[in-house]
Amino acid sequence: xxxxxxxxxxxxxxxxxxxxxxxxxxxxxxxxxxxxxxxxxxxxxxxxxxxxxxxxxxxxxxxxxxxxxxxxxxxxxxxxxxxxxxxxxxxxxxxxxxxxxxxxxxxxxxxxxxxxxxxxxxxxxxxxxxxxxxxxxxxxxxxxxxxxxxxxxxxxxxxxxxxxxxxxxxxxxxxxxxxxxxxxxxxxxxxxxxxxxxxxxxxxxxxxxxxxxxxxxxxxxxxxxxxxxxxxxxxxxxxxxxxxxxxxxxxxxxxxxxxxxxxxxxxxxxxxxxxxxxxxxxxxxxxxxxxxxxxxxxxxxxxxxxxxxxxxxxx
Length: 315
What we know:
Layout: H1 22-64, E1 67-68, E2 78-79, H2 83-89, H3 92-123, H4 130-142, H5 145-155, H6 162-167, H7 177-204, H8 209-217, H9 222-233, H10 235-249, H11 254-259, H12 271-281, H13 285-314
Antiparallel strand pairs: 1-2
Helix pairs in contact: 1-13, 2-13, 3-7, 3-10, 4-7, 7-10, 10-13, 12-13
């Protein structure tokens, strides 16, 4: 008796390009949507902090600047429109503070950038004890503004001050507007050199040594290599440093209060000390808010101008 072998049923192989089932498609769509939203979930805490700590105070400041606003109990908040801004434009003492901060900016920002670049170039070389020197140069950055301001006040004291002793003079540094500004600028430069040097040092370490070796073989000296290789390679670092230093110049406050107490006769006033005086000494929060908002817009415009200028140079 013959046994009949069953014929196997041929099964068509699954095509590589076969479309997935509806359930799989829905799963892919759900996963893709969640994947696209995931980055925003990680950014949400930072955005929330920005809104609460930066954007919301700016909006409240803008609102208060339109009022004659006092924090005293029972005080009537009177809407005055743009009167506070008109008052600022006619306030000679406010313009004096702006001139002082402009002088501070024009001295300290180039000073920190140039000296910081020199220190970065020095620390980028393979010198013995390089780590120790890096720590020493950065030490003023992490030191409290209160401590260094009191230290420089002692250094520039008329009688017994270390600066007068070293120069063999008896200059009343802190009793004259321009010499007091010179002392404030010296403190600003000294304290910021380490931070600038660290940022520029990071940029220097990102420039390939092959470029310097090739230029050296072509006969380029140190100055030509600095101008044609180092500075173009540090363009972004220099922009970052300059923008933040300009912003920091408008934030000078503690050193003025502790070294000169805004004197003599308010001649070393800077915008932040003037805002502080109007808001917390005279309790004129509306006018103080208007001054603060003017400074905010000015700093924003300066930062945009610097960025656009550098981008145009790169093109």
